[in-house]
Amino acid sequence: MTSYVIRRLLGLIPTLFIITVIVFSLMHLMPGNAFQALIGLNPHIKDAAKVIAQRTANAGLNLSWPKQYVNWIVNLLHGNLGTSFEFQEPVTTLIGIALPNTVTLALTAELIILMIGIPVGVFQANRVNKGFDISTSLVAVFLYSVPGFVFALFLIFLFSFTLNWLPSMGTVTAAVPWSGNLGDRIQHLILPATTLALPSVAYYTRLMRANTLQVFFQDYVRTARAKGLHSTRVLFRHVLRNAIIPITTQFGFDIGGLVGGAVILEQIFTWPGMGELTINANLNRDYPVILATTLIFAVMVLLGNLFADILLASMDPRVRYN
Amino acid sequence: MAASVVSNAGVKSGGTVLKGKPPSRLAFERFMRNPLAVAGSIILLAIIFITVGAPLFTHYSPSVIDIMNTNAPPSAAHPLGTDPSGYDNLARLLYGGRVDLTVAFSAGVMTLVIGTIYGGISGYFGGWIDNLMMRFVDVMLNFPFVVFILFLEAVFNTSGELLLITVVVLTSWPASGRFMRGVFIQLRQQDFVIGATTIGAGTWRTIFRHMLPNTVGTLSVLVSFAVAGYVGLEAALTFIGLGLPLSVASWGGMLSEASNYTAMTTQPYLWLPPAIMIVLTILSVNFIGDGLRDAFDPQMRS
Question: What is the DSSP letter of A230?
Fold first, then answer.
Protein backbone atom coordinates (compact mmCIF):
# COMPACT_ATOMS: atom_id res chain seq x y z
CA MET A 1 0.00 0.00 0.00
CA THR A 2 2.69 2.51 1.04
CA SER A 3 4.91 1.45 -1.83
CA TYR A 4 1.90 1.78 -4.15
CA VAL A 5 1.29 5.35 -3.01
CA ILE A 6 4.97 6.24 -3.37
CA ARG A 7 5.08 4.69 -6.83
CA ARG A 8 1.97 6.60 -7.86
CA LEU A 9 3.37 9.86 -6.48
CA LEU A 10 6.58 9.35 -8.44
CA GLY A 11 4.41 8.53 -11.44
CA LEU A 12 2.92 12.01 -11.22
CA ILE A 13 6.24 13.65 -12.04
CA PRO A 14 6.31 12.72 -15.77
CA THR A 15 2.69 13.85 -16.12
CA LEU A 16 3.42 17.19 -14.50
CA PHE A 17 6.55 17.52 -16.61
CA ILE A 18 4.63 16.97 -19.86
CA ILE A 19 1.84 19.35 -18.87
CA THR A 20 4.21 22.15 -17.94
CA VAL A 21 6.26 21.63 -21.10
CA ILE A 22 3.13 21.86 -23.27
CA VAL A 23 1.80 24.90 -21.40
CA PHE A 24 5.23 26.50 -21.53
CA SER A 25 5.40 26.03 -25.31
CA LEU A 26 1.83 27.18 -25.87
CA MET A 27 2.23 30.37 -23.88
CA HIS A 28 5.41 31.26 -25.73
CA LEU A 29 3.71 30.54 -29.04
CA MET A 30 0.97 33.05 -28.22
CA PRO A 31 1.73 36.35 -29.90
CA GLY A 32 2.82 39.24 -27.68
CA ASN A 33 4.23 39.33 -24.18
CA ALA A 34 3.23 40.93 -20.92
CA PHE A 35 5.43 44.00 -21.25
CA GLN A 36 4.11 44.98 -24.64
CA ALA A 37 0.64 45.18 -23.13
CA LEU A 38 1.67 46.74 -19.82
CA ILE A 39 4.15 49.30 -21.11
CA GLY A 40 3.44 49.68 -24.81
CA LEU A 41 -0.08 50.96 -24.17
CA ASN A 42 0.90 53.29 -21.34
CA PRO A 43 1.13 56.88 -22.66
CA HIS A 44 3.12 58.05 -19.59
CA ILE A 45 6.15 55.98 -20.46
CA LYS A 46 8.53 57.68 -22.86
CA ASP A 47 10.60 55.51 -25.14
CA ALA A 48 8.39 52.49 -24.53
CA ALA A 49 10.36 50.23 -26.89
CA LYS A 50 13.52 50.61 -24.81
CA VAL A 51 11.71 49.95 -21.53
CA ILE A 52 10.02 46.88 -23.03
CA ALA A 53 13.35 45.54 -24.25
CA GLN A 54 14.95 46.11 -20.83
CA ARG A 55 12.12 44.52 -18.88
CA THR A 56 12.02 41.58 -21.29
CA ALA A 57 15.74 41.04 -20.78
CA ASN A 58 15.41 41.36 -16.99
CA ALA A 59 12.69 38.73 -16.95
CA GLY A 60 14.99 36.38 -18.84
CA LEU A 61 12.70 36.18 -21.85
CA ASN A 62 15.58 36.64 -24.29
CA LEU A 63 17.07 33.28 -23.38
CA SER A 64 16.27 30.23 -25.45
CA TRP A 65 13.11 28.37 -24.45
CA PRO A 66 14.85 25.27 -23.09
CA LYS A 67 17.06 27.49 -20.95
CA GLN A 68 14.04 29.43 -19.69
CA TYR A 69 12.26 26.19 -18.86
CA VAL A 70 15.28 24.80 -17.01
CA ASN A 71 15.56 28.06 -15.08
CA TRP A 72 11.92 27.77 -14.13
CA ILE A 73 12.36 24.18 -12.95
CA VAL A 74 15.47 25.07 -10.91
CA ASN A 75 13.63 27.96 -9.29
CA LEU A 76 10.62 25.72 -8.66
CA LEU A 77 12.79 23.18 -6.85
CA HIS A 78 14.02 26.04 -4.67
CA GLY A 79 10.42 26.90 -3.88
CA ASN A 80 10.52 30.01 -6.04
CA LEU A 81 7.70 30.38 -8.55
CA GLY A 82 9.03 33.64 -9.94
CA THR A 83 7.67 37.17 -9.93
CA SER A 84 4.46 38.19 -11.63
CA PHE A 85 5.10 40.51 -14.58
CA GLU A 86 1.79 42.23 -14.09
CA PHE A 87 1.70 42.75 -10.31
CA GLN A 88 5.45 42.88 -9.59
CA GLU A 89 4.90 40.53 -6.69
CA PRO A 90 6.15 37.00 -5.98
CA VAL A 91 3.79 34.46 -7.52
CA THR A 92 3.71 32.56 -4.23
CA THR A 93 2.17 35.63 -2.58
CA LEU A 94 -0.54 35.87 -5.24
CA ILE A 95 -1.28 32.16 -4.96
CA GLY A 96 -1.23 32.38 -1.18
CA ILE A 97 -4.15 34.80 -1.45
CA ALA A 98 -6.06 33.08 -4.25
CA LEU A 99 -5.71 29.39 -3.40
CA PRO A 100 -7.31 29.47 0.10
CA ASN A 101 -10.31 31.31 -1.35
CA THR A 102 -10.81 28.69 -4.05
CA VAL A 103 -10.24 25.76 -1.69
CA THR A 104 -12.74 27.20 0.82
CA LEU A 105 -15.29 27.50 -1.95
CA ALA A 106 -14.67 23.99 -3.30
CA LEU A 107 -14.68 22.30 0.13
CA THR A 108 -17.89 24.03 1.19
CA ALA A 109 -19.50 22.95 -2.06
CA GLU A 110 -18.19 19.38 -1.64
CA LEU A 111 -19.65 19.24 1.88
CA ILE A 112 -23.06 20.38 0.64
CA ILE A 113 -22.90 17.82 -2.19
CA LEU A 114 -22.12 14.79 0.00
CA MET A 115 -24.49 15.75 2.81
CA ILE A 116 -27.43 16.01 0.44
CA GLY A 117 -26.52 13.74 -2.48
CA ILE A 118 -25.88 10.41 -0.72
CA PRO A 119 -28.88 10.27 1.67
CA VAL A 120 -31.35 11.51 -0.93
CA GLY A 121 -30.09 9.02 -3.53
CA VAL A 122 -30.35 6.09 -1.14
CA PHE A 123 -33.83 7.05 0.02
CA GLN A 124 -34.96 7.38 -3.58
CA ALA A 125 -33.69 3.93 -4.47
CA ASN A 126 -35.16 2.45 -1.31
CA ARG A 127 -38.63 3.73 -2.15
CA VAL A 128 -38.25 3.58 -5.88
CA ASN A 129 -41.03 5.08 -8.01
CA LYS A 130 -42.87 6.31 -4.93
CA GLY A 131 -43.77 9.94 -4.38
CA PHE A 132 -40.45 10.96 -2.83
CA ASP A 133 -38.41 9.29 -5.54
CA ILE A 134 -40.33 10.79 -8.43
CA SER A 135 -40.53 14.30 -7.01
CA THR A 136 -36.87 14.50 -5.98
CA SER A 137 -35.77 12.87 -9.24
CA LEU A 138 -37.57 15.60 -11.15
CA VAL A 139 -35.96 18.26 -8.98
CA ALA A 140 -32.58 16.60 -9.49
CA VAL A 141 -32.97 16.53 -13.28
CA PHE A 142 -33.96 20.16 -13.18
CA LEU A 143 -31.02 21.15 -10.97
CA TYR A 144 -28.66 19.17 -13.13
CA SER A 145 -30.02 20.84 -16.25
CA VAL A 146 -29.47 24.41 -15.19
CA PRO A 147 -25.88 25.44 -15.94
CA GLY A 148 -23.99 26.90 -13.00
CA PHE A 149 -23.79 30.41 -14.36
CA VAL A 150 -27.51 30.58 -15.15
CA PHE A 151 -28.14 29.45 -11.60
CA ALA A 152 -25.77 32.12 -10.43
CA LEU A 153 -27.75 34.74 -12.35
CA PHE A 154 -31.07 33.55 -10.92
CA LEU A 155 -29.72 33.39 -7.37
CA ILE A 156 -28.08 36.80 -7.67
CA PHE A 157 -31.28 38.24 -9.13
CA LEU A 158 -33.37 36.71 -6.35
CA PHE A 159 -31.21 36.98 -3.24
CA SER A 160 -28.98 39.93 -4.03
CA PHE A 161 -30.91 42.27 -6.32
CA THR A 162 -34.51 41.63 -5.35
CA LEU A 163 -34.50 40.46 -1.73
CA ASN A 164 -31.17 42.09 -0.89
CA TRP A 165 -30.32 39.30 1.58
CA LEU A 166 -26.93 38.07 0.41
CA PRO A 167 -23.96 39.78 -1.20
CA SER A 168 -23.08 38.72 -4.73
CA MET A 169 -19.50 39.94 -4.96
CA GLY A 170 -16.17 39.29 -3.28
CA THR A 171 -15.30 37.44 -0.08
CA VAL A 172 -15.83 40.24 2.46
CA THR A 173 -17.84 43.44 2.73
CA ALA A 174 -15.56 46.43 2.28
CA ALA A 175 -15.40 49.38 4.66
CA VAL A 176 -17.73 48.19 7.43
CA PRO A 177 -16.76 47.40 11.05
CA TRP A 178 -17.69 43.72 10.66
CA SER A 179 -15.70 43.39 7.44
CA GLY A 180 -13.87 40.08 7.30
CA ASN A 181 -15.29 38.38 10.39
CA LEU A 182 -16.66 34.85 10.23
CA GLY A 183 -20.31 35.77 9.71
CA ASP A 184 -19.41 38.17 6.94
CA ARG A 185 -17.31 35.55 5.19
CA ILE A 186 -20.00 32.89 5.48
CA GLN A 187 -22.55 35.30 4.05
CA HIS A 188 -20.33 35.87 1.05
CA LEU A 189 -19.70 32.14 0.70
CA ILE A 190 -23.36 31.04 0.56
CA LEU A 191 -24.26 32.04 -3.00
CA PRO A 192 -21.09 30.89 -4.81
CA ALA A 193 -20.84 27.62 -2.86
CA THR A 194 -24.52 26.80 -3.41
CA THR A 195 -24.22 27.56 -7.11
CA LEU A 196 -21.12 25.40 -7.39
CA ALA A 197 -22.72 22.55 -5.43
CA LEU A 198 -26.25 22.37 -6.88
CA PRO A 199 -25.54 20.71 -10.26
CA SER A 200 -23.25 18.20 -8.51
CA VAL A 201 -25.81 17.55 -5.78
CA ALA A 202 -28.21 16.50 -8.50
CA TYR A 203 -25.54 14.42 -10.22
CA TYR A 204 -24.52 12.63 -7.01
CA THR A 205 -28.15 11.97 -6.18
CA ARG A 206 -28.71 10.38 -9.58
CA LEU A 207 -25.49 8.42 -9.34
CA MET A 208 -26.27 7.20 -5.84
CA ARG A 209 -29.82 6.23 -6.82
CA ALA A 210 -28.63 4.35 -9.89
CA ASN A 211 -25.87 2.54 -7.98
CA THR A 212 -28.18 1.56 -5.18
CA LEU A 213 -30.77 0.27 -7.62
CA GLN A 214 -28.14 -1.72 -9.48
CA VAL A 215 -26.99 -3.35 -6.24
CA PHE A 216 -30.59 -4.08 -5.26
CA PHE A 217 -30.80 -6.55 -8.14
CA GLN A 218 -27.66 -8.47 -7.20
CA ASP A 219 -27.96 -12.05 -6.05
CA TYR A 220 -26.30 -11.48 -2.71
CA VAL A 221 -28.89 -8.88 -1.79
CA ARG A 222 -31.66 -11.33 -2.65
CA THR A 223 -29.85 -13.94 -0.57
CA ALA A 224 -29.55 -11.55 2.34
CA ARG A 225 -33.26 -10.82 2.13
CA ALA A 226 -34.11 -14.47 1.68
CA LYS A 227 -32.28 -15.50 4.79
CA GLY A 228 -34.50 -13.10 6.69
CA LEU A 229 -32.29 -10.11 7.43
CA HIS A 230 -34.01 -6.92 8.42
CA SER A 231 -34.37 -4.55 5.47
CA THR A 232 -32.41 -1.72 7.15
CA ARG A 233 -29.58 -4.15 7.82
CA VAL A 234 -29.61 -5.27 4.20
CA LEU A 235 -29.61 -1.65 3.12
CA PHE A 236 -26.70 -0.55 5.27
CA ARG A 237 -24.57 -3.68 5.39
CA HIS A 238 -25.06 -5.13 1.94
CA VAL A 239 -26.37 -2.49 -0.42
CA LEU A 240 -24.84 0.77 0.76
CA ARG A 241 -21.32 -0.58 1.09
CA ASN A 242 -21.27 -1.57 -2.54
CA ALA A 243 -23.34 1.27 -3.90
CA ILE A 244 -21.09 3.89 -2.35
CA ILE A 245 -17.94 2.71 -4.13
CA PRO A 246 -18.50 4.64 -7.39
CA ILE A 247 -19.36 7.72 -5.32
CA THR A 248 -15.97 7.69 -3.59
CA THR A 249 -14.25 7.41 -6.95
CA GLN A 250 -16.30 10.29 -8.28
CA PHE A 251 -15.49 12.26 -5.15
CA GLY A 252 -11.77 11.89 -5.80
CA PHE A 253 -12.13 13.02 -9.40
CA ASP A 254 -14.26 15.95 -8.29
CA ILE A 255 -11.72 17.39 -5.88
CA GLY A 256 -9.76 18.70 -8.80
CA GLY A 257 -12.83 19.18 -10.96
CA LEU A 258 -14.58 21.46 -8.52
CA VAL A 259 -11.54 23.69 -8.27
CA GLY A 260 -11.46 23.90 -12.05
CA GLY A 261 -15.23 24.30 -12.25
CA ALA A 262 -14.98 27.28 -9.98
CA VAL A 263 -13.16 29.20 -12.74
CA ILE A 264 -16.37 30.39 -14.39
CA LEU A 265 -18.27 31.00 -11.15
CA GLU A 266 -15.38 32.97 -9.71
CA GLN A 267 -15.67 35.35 -12.65
CA ILE A 268 -19.39 35.86 -11.99
CA PHE A 269 -19.10 36.31 -8.24
CA THR A 270 -15.81 38.24 -8.55
CA TRP A 271 -14.39 35.72 -6.10
CA PRO A 272 -10.65 36.45 -5.85
CA GLY A 273 -9.56 32.86 -6.38
CA MET A 274 -7.47 30.77 -8.73
CA GLY A 275 -9.91 31.07 -11.63
CA GLU A 276 -9.71 34.82 -11.73
CA LEU A 277 -5.94 34.69 -11.36
CA THR A 278 -5.62 32.18 -14.22
CA ILE A 279 -7.81 34.00 -16.72
CA ASN A 280 -6.21 37.31 -15.89
CA ALA A 281 -2.71 35.87 -16.23
CA ASN A 282 -3.53 34.29 -19.58
CA LEU A 283 -5.03 37.45 -21.00
CA ASN A 284 -1.98 39.44 -19.88
CA ARG A 285 0.63 36.82 -20.88
CA ASP A 286 1.88 36.78 -17.29
CA TYR A 287 4.07 33.72 -17.85
CA PRO A 288 5.14 32.90 -14.26
CA VAL A 289 1.54 33.06 -13.04
CA ILE A 290 0.26 30.94 -15.95
CA LEU A 291 2.78 28.22 -15.20
CA ALA A 292 2.17 28.30 -11.46
CA THR A 293 -1.63 28.14 -11.71
CA THR A 294 -1.42 25.35 -14.29
CA LEU A 295 0.87 23.41 -12.01
CA ILE A 296 -1.41 23.81 -9.02
CA PHE A 297 -4.57 22.83 -10.91
CA ALA A 298 -2.77 19.78 -12.28
CA VAL A 299 -1.40 18.71 -8.89
CA MET A 300 -4.88 19.00 -7.35
CA VAL A 301 -6.52 16.89 -10.04
CA LEU A 302 -3.75 14.28 -9.95
CA LEU A 303 -3.83 13.99 -6.16
CA GLY A 304 -7.61 13.72 -6.35
CA ASN A 305 -7.33 10.85 -8.84
CA LEU A 306 -4.74 9.11 -6.68
CA PHE A 307 -7.01 9.54 -3.67
CA ALA A 308 -9.90 8.05 -5.67
CA ASP A 309 -7.84 5.02 -6.71
CA ILE A 310 -6.63 4.37 -3.16
CA LEU A 311 -10.17 4.67 -1.82
CA LEU A 312 -11.49 2.36 -4.53
CA ALA A 313 -8.85 -0.27 -3.90
CA SER A 314 -9.32 -0.16 -0.15
CA MET A 315 -13.12 -0.42 -0.40
CA ASP A 316 -13.42 -2.99 -3.17
CA PRO A 317 -11.18 -6.03 -2.61
CA ARG A 318 -11.71 -7.14 -6.21
CA VAL A 319 -9.67 -4.13 -7.33
CA ARG A 320 -5.99 -4.69 -6.67
CA TYR A 321 -3.16 -2.22 -6.46
CA ASN A 322 -1.11 -2.58 -9.58
CA MET B 1 -34.29 -27.08 -32.87
CA ALA B 2 -36.56 -26.86 -29.88
CA ALA B 3 -34.07 -24.69 -28.08
CA SER B 4 -33.95 -22.13 -30.88
CA VAL B 5 -37.75 -21.93 -31.01
CA VAL B 6 -37.88 -21.25 -27.30
CA SER B 7 -35.23 -18.57 -27.46
CA ASN B 8 -36.75 -16.78 -30.43
CA ALA B 9 -40.40 -16.77 -29.50
CA GLY B 10 -42.06 -16.20 -26.18
CA VAL B 11 -45.10 -18.35 -25.46
CA LYS B 12 -47.88 -16.52 -23.72
CA SER B 13 -49.86 -18.27 -21.03
CA GLY B 14 -52.84 -18.31 -23.39
CA GLY B 15 -50.84 -20.38 -25.80
CA THR B 16 -50.50 -17.80 -28.61
CA VAL B 17 -46.98 -17.60 -29.95
CA LEU B 18 -45.49 -14.10 -29.97
CA LYS B 19 -43.19 -13.19 -32.77
CA GLY B 20 -39.79 -12.14 -31.47
CA LYS B 21 -38.99 -8.48 -31.79
CA PRO B 22 -35.46 -7.19 -32.24
CA PRO B 23 -34.02 -5.59 -29.09
CA SER B 24 -33.77 -2.16 -30.75
CA ARG B 25 -37.49 -2.26 -31.52
CA LEU B 26 -38.26 -3.24 -27.92
CA ALA B 27 -36.05 -0.42 -26.69
CA PHE B 28 -37.84 2.05 -28.95
CA GLU B 29 -41.20 0.89 -27.63
CA ARG B 30 -40.02 1.27 -24.05
CA PHE B 31 -38.74 4.74 -24.89
CA MET B 32 -42.08 5.77 -26.35
CA ARG B 33 -43.85 4.58 -23.21
CA ASN B 34 -41.82 7.00 -21.07
CA PRO B 35 -43.83 10.26 -20.92
CA LEU B 36 -40.89 12.45 -19.86
CA ALA B 37 -38.69 11.12 -22.66
CA VAL B 38 -41.41 11.73 -25.23
CA ALA B 39 -42.03 15.21 -23.87
CA GLY B 40 -38.28 15.87 -24.00
CA SER B 41 -38.11 14.72 -27.61
CA ILE B 42 -41.05 16.93 -28.58
CA ILE B 43 -39.56 19.98 -26.85
CA LEU B 44 -36.16 19.39 -28.43
CA LEU B 45 -37.70 18.93 -31.88
CA ALA B 46 -39.68 22.12 -31.36
CA ILE B 47 -36.53 24.02 -30.37
CA ILE B 48 -34.67 22.65 -33.39
CA PHE B 49 -37.62 23.59 -35.61
CA ILE B 50 -37.89 27.20 -34.43
CA THR B 51 -34.13 27.74 -34.60
CA VAL B 52 -33.57 26.11 -37.98
CA GLY B 53 -36.72 27.75 -39.34
CA ALA B 54 -35.93 31.08 -37.70
CA PRO B 55 -36.81 33.15 -40.82
CA LEU B 56 -40.37 31.80 -40.55
CA PHE B 57 -40.84 33.42 -37.17
CA THR B 58 -39.05 36.74 -37.48
CA HIS B 59 -38.17 38.89 -40.45
CA TYR B 60 -35.38 40.66 -38.56
CA SER B 61 -31.77 39.67 -39.02
CA PRO B 62 -29.73 38.87 -35.91
CA SER B 63 -26.83 40.95 -37.23
CA VAL B 64 -28.60 44.13 -38.36
CA ILE B 65 -29.13 46.85 -35.79
CA ASP B 66 -32.07 49.21 -35.56
CA ILE B 67 -30.16 52.27 -34.40
CA MET B 68 -33.27 54.40 -33.80
CA ASN B 69 -34.85 51.77 -31.61
CA THR B 70 -32.40 50.60 -28.94
CA ASN B 71 -33.41 49.23 -25.54
CA ALA B 72 -37.04 49.06 -26.63
CA PRO B 73 -39.44 47.12 -24.42
CA PRO B 74 -41.47 44.36 -26.07
CA SER B 75 -43.87 45.65 -28.71
CA ALA B 76 -45.78 44.33 -31.70
CA ALA B 77 -42.83 45.05 -34.00
CA HIS B 78 -40.27 43.57 -31.59
CA PRO B 79 -42.00 40.83 -29.52
CA LEU B 80 -39.02 40.55 -27.15
CA GLY B 81 -37.83 44.13 -27.46
CA THR B 82 -34.42 45.23 -28.63
CA ASP B 83 -31.11 45.18 -26.80
CA PRO B 84 -28.84 48.17 -26.04
CA SER B 85 -27.22 47.89 -29.49
CA GLY B 86 -30.57 47.82 -31.31
CA TYR B 87 -30.59 44.12 -32.22
CA ASP B 88 -33.98 42.45 -32.26
CA ASN B 89 -34.02 40.05 -29.31
CA LEU B 90 -36.32 37.48 -30.87
CA ALA B 91 -34.11 37.22 -33.96
CA ARG B 92 -31.02 36.85 -31.80
CA LEU B 93 -32.74 34.25 -29.65
CA LEU B 94 -33.78 32.11 -32.63
CA TYR B 95 -30.61 32.43 -34.70
CA GLY B 96 -28.50 32.10 -31.54
CA GLY B 97 -30.08 28.73 -30.90
CA ARG B 98 -28.65 27.42 -34.17
CA VAL B 99 -25.14 28.22 -32.98
CA ASP B 100 -25.67 26.72 -29.54
CA LEU B 101 -27.20 23.51 -30.86
CA THR B 102 -24.58 23.06 -33.58
CA VAL B 103 -21.71 23.45 -31.15
CA ALA B 104 -23.28 21.18 -28.53
CA PHE B 105 -24.30 18.35 -30.86
CA SER B 106 -21.12 18.21 -32.91
CA ALA B 107 -18.92 18.41 -29.83
CA GLY B 108 -21.02 15.84 -27.97
CA VAL B 109 -20.94 13.22 -30.71
CA MET B 110 -17.26 13.76 -31.53
CA THR B 111 -16.23 13.56 -27.88
CA LEU B 112 -18.02 10.26 -27.41
CA VAL B 113 -16.70 8.69 -30.61
CA ILE B 114 -13.13 9.52 -29.64
CA GLY B 115 -13.75 8.56 -26.02
CA THR B 116 -15.24 5.17 -26.87
CA ILE B 117 -12.48 4.18 -29.26
CA TYR B 118 -9.77 5.33 -26.88
CA GLY B 119 -11.35 3.98 -23.71
CA GLY B 120 -12.36 0.74 -25.38
CA ILE B 121 -8.83 -0.02 -26.54
CA SER B 122 -7.37 0.95 -23.20
CA GLY B 123 -9.87 -0.96 -21.11
CA TYR B 124 -9.99 -4.10 -23.24
CA PHE B 125 -6.30 -4.67 -23.69
CA GLY B 126 -5.16 -3.49 -20.28
CA GLY B 127 -1.56 -3.95 -19.25
CA TRP B 128 1.06 -1.54 -20.48
CA ILE B 129 -1.18 -0.23 -23.29
CA ASP B 130 -3.76 0.76 -20.72
CA ASN B 131 -1.11 2.28 -18.50
CA LEU B 132 0.40 4.36 -21.27
CA MET B 133 -2.96 5.49 -22.61
CA MET B 134 -4.22 6.45 -19.19
CA ARG B 135 -1.09 8.45 -18.44
CA PHE B 136 -1.87 10.43 -21.57
CA VAL B 137 -5.45 10.89 -20.38
CA ASP B 138 -4.06 12.14 -17.07
CA VAL B 139 -2.08 14.72 -18.96
CA MET B 140 -5.05 15.78 -21.07
CA LEU B 141 -7.50 15.79 -18.17
CA ASN B 142 -5.28 18.21 -16.37
CA PHE B 143 -4.75 20.34 -19.33
CA PRO B 144 -6.01 23.82 -18.46
CA PHE B 145 -8.69 24.60 -21.00
CA VAL B 146 -8.47 28.33 -20.33
CA VAL B 147 -4.85 28.32 -21.52
CA PHE B 148 -5.85 26.22 -24.49
CA ILE B 149 -8.76 28.40 -25.59
CA LEU B 150 -6.79 31.61 -25.28
CA PHE B 151 -3.87 30.01 -27.09
CA LEU B 152 -6.00 28.93 -30.05
CA GLU B 153 -7.78 32.27 -30.17
CA ALA B 154 -4.50 34.17 -30.07
CA VAL B 155 -2.81 32.02 -32.69
CA PHE B 156 -5.69 31.78 -35.17
CA ASN B 157 -6.74 35.32 -34.39
CA THR B 158 -10.37 34.32 -34.41
CA SER B 159 -13.05 33.05 -32.11
CA GLY B 160 -15.97 31.24 -33.63
CA GLU B 161 -18.05 28.11 -33.64
CA LEU B 162 -15.44 25.87 -35.24
CA LEU B 163 -12.76 26.94 -32.80
CA LEU B 164 -15.11 26.42 -29.87
CA ILE B 165 -16.06 22.90 -31.04
CA THR B 166 -12.38 22.05 -31.46
CA VAL B 167 -11.52 23.32 -28.01
CA VAL B 168 -14.42 21.55 -26.35
CA VAL B 169 -13.63 18.23 -28.06
CA LEU B 170 -9.89 18.46 -27.47
CA THR B 171 -10.38 19.17 -23.78
CA SER B 172 -13.38 16.91 -23.12
CA TRP B 173 -12.63 13.59 -24.79
CA PRO B 174 -10.30 12.35 -22.00
CA ALA B 175 -13.15 12.31 -19.49
CA SER B 176 -15.33 10.12 -21.69
CA GLY B 177 -12.30 8.04 -22.62
CA ARG B 178 -11.62 7.34 -18.98
CA PHE B 179 -15.27 6.58 -18.33
CA MET B 180 -15.55 4.16 -21.25
CA ARG B 181 -12.35 2.46 -20.11
CA GLY B 182 -14.05 1.81 -16.79
CA VAL B 183 -17.09 0.41 -18.57
CA PHE B 184 -14.94 -1.88 -20.71
CA ILE B 185 -12.90 -3.10 -17.74
CA GLN B 186 -16.12 -3.93 -15.93
CA LEU B 187 -17.51 -5.72 -18.99
CA ARG B 188 -14.30 -7.68 -19.53
CA GLN B 189 -14.80 -9.39 -16.17
CA GLN B 190 -18.45 -10.23 -16.88
CA ASP B 191 -19.32 -13.87 -17.39
CA PHE B 192 -20.69 -13.48 -20.90
CA VAL B 193 -17.47 -11.89 -22.13
CA ILE B 194 -15.33 -14.53 -20.45
CA GLY B 195 -17.70 -17.08 -21.99
CA ALA B 196 -17.34 -15.56 -25.45
CA THR B 197 -13.56 -15.63 -25.15
CA THR B 198 -13.69 -19.19 -23.85
CA ILE B 199 -15.65 -20.51 -26.81
CA GLY B 200 -13.06 -18.97 -29.07
CA ALA B 201 -14.45 -15.59 -30.14
CA GLY B 202 -11.69 -13.37 -31.49
CA THR B 203 -10.70 -10.03 -30.05
CA TRP B 204 -12.70 -7.91 -32.47
CA ARG B 205 -15.74 -10.17 -32.34
CA THR B 206 -15.70 -9.98 -28.55
CA ILE B 207 -15.42 -6.21 -28.62
CA PHE B 208 -17.94 -5.44 -31.35
CA ARG B 209 -20.49 -8.23 -30.88
CA HIS B 210 -20.43 -8.73 -27.14
CA MET B 211 -19.06 -5.66 -25.41
CA LEU B 212 -20.01 -2.69 -27.59
CA PRO B 213 -23.75 -3.50 -27.76
CA ASN B 214 -23.73 -3.60 -23.97
CA THR B 215 -22.36 -0.09 -23.81
CA VAL B 216 -25.10 1.38 -26.01
CA GLY B 217 -27.20 2.30 -23.01
CA THR B 218 -24.29 3.94 -21.24
CA LEU B 219 -23.23 5.68 -24.45
CA SER B 220 -26.65 7.13 -25.16
CA VAL B 221 -26.85 8.48 -21.63
CA LEU B 222 -23.33 9.88 -21.96
CA VAL B 223 -24.12 11.54 -25.29
CA SER B 224 -27.22 13.13 -23.85
CA PHE B 225 -25.33 14.40 -20.82
CA ALA B 226 -22.47 15.57 -23.03
CA VAL B 227 -24.78 17.52 -25.33
CA ALA B 228 -26.61 18.95 -22.34
CA GLY B 229 -23.32 19.87 -20.71
CA TYR B 230 -21.94 21.51 -23.83
CA VAL B 231 -24.99 23.72 -24.30
CA GLY B 232 -24.19 24.99 -20.81
CA LEU B 233 -20.43 25.08 -21.36
CA GLU B 234 -20.74 27.01 -24.62
CA ALA B 235 -23.04 29.53 -22.97
CA ALA B 236 -20.82 29.79 -19.90
CA LEU B 237 -17.65 30.33 -21.92
CA THR B 238 -19.36 32.96 -24.05
CA PHE B 239 -20.77 34.49 -20.89
CA ILE B 240 -17.34 35.14 -19.39
CA GLY B 241 -15.98 36.24 -22.75
CA LEU B 242 -13.93 33.19 -23.72
CA GLY B 243 -16.36 31.58 -26.14
CA LEU B 244 -18.10 33.08 -29.13
CA PRO B 245 -17.62 36.76 -29.91
CA LEU B 246 -20.59 38.93 -28.99
CA SER B 247 -21.10 39.78 -32.70
CA VAL B 248 -22.31 36.19 -33.18
CA ALA B 249 -25.82 35.77 -31.81
CA SER B 250 -25.84 33.13 -29.07
CA TRP B 251 -27.76 32.50 -25.86
CA GLY B 252 -24.66 32.84 -23.70
CA GLY B 253 -23.79 36.11 -25.37
CA MET B 254 -27.29 37.49 -24.79
CA LEU B 255 -27.07 36.57 -21.12
CA SER B 256 -23.63 38.10 -20.89
CA GLU B 257 -24.85 41.42 -22.28
CA ALA B 258 -27.80 41.51 -19.92
CA SER B 259 -25.98 40.47 -16.76
CA ASN B 260 -25.73 43.84 -15.08
CA TYR B 261 -27.78 45.25 -12.26
CA THR B 262 -29.92 47.59 -14.37
CA ALA B 263 -30.72 45.09 -17.09
CA MET B 264 -31.44 42.26 -14.68
CA THR B 265 -33.79 44.24 -12.47
CA THR B 266 -35.56 46.38 -15.06
CA GLN B 267 -35.38 44.48 -18.37
CA PRO B 268 -36.26 40.83 -17.74
CA TYR B 269 -37.09 40.44 -21.46
CA LEU B 270 -33.36 40.73 -22.17
CA TRP B 271 -32.10 37.84 -20.03
CA LEU B 272 -35.07 35.62 -19.23
CA PRO B 273 -35.69 34.26 -22.77
CA PRO B 274 -32.12 33.03 -23.40
CA ALA B 275 -31.91 31.64 -19.86
CA ILE B 276 -35.19 29.77 -20.35
CA MET B 277 -34.07 28.45 -23.75
CA ILE B 278 -30.79 27.16 -22.31
CA VAL B 279 -32.55 25.42 -19.43
CA LEU B 280 -35.31 24.01 -21.67
CA THR B 281 -32.81 22.62 -24.16
CA ILE B 282 -30.66 20.96 -21.51
CA LEU B 283 -33.71 19.67 -19.65
CA SER B 284 -35.21 18.07 -22.75
CA VAL B 285 -31.91 16.47 -23.76
CA ASN B 286 -31.53 15.09 -20.24
CA PHE B 287 -35.06 13.66 -20.31
CA ILE B 288 -34.27 11.98 -23.60
CA GLY B 289 -31.08 10.58 -22.09
CA ASP B 290 -32.98 9.20 -19.10
CA GLY B 291 -35.56 7.67 -21.42
CA LEU B 292 -32.83 6.07 -23.52
CA ARG B 293 -31.13 4.63 -20.47
CA ASP B 294 -34.33 3.10 -19.17
CA ALA B 295 -35.16 1.82 -22.64
CA PHE B 296 -31.82 0.15 -23.26
CA ASP B 297 -31.37 -1.22 -19.78
CA PRO B 298 -34.74 -2.42 -18.50
CA GLN B 299 -33.06 -3.83 -15.41
CA MET B 300 -32.57 -0.27 -14.19
CA ARG B 301 -36.35 0.09 -14.00
CA SER B 302 -37.84 -1.58 -11.04
Answer: -
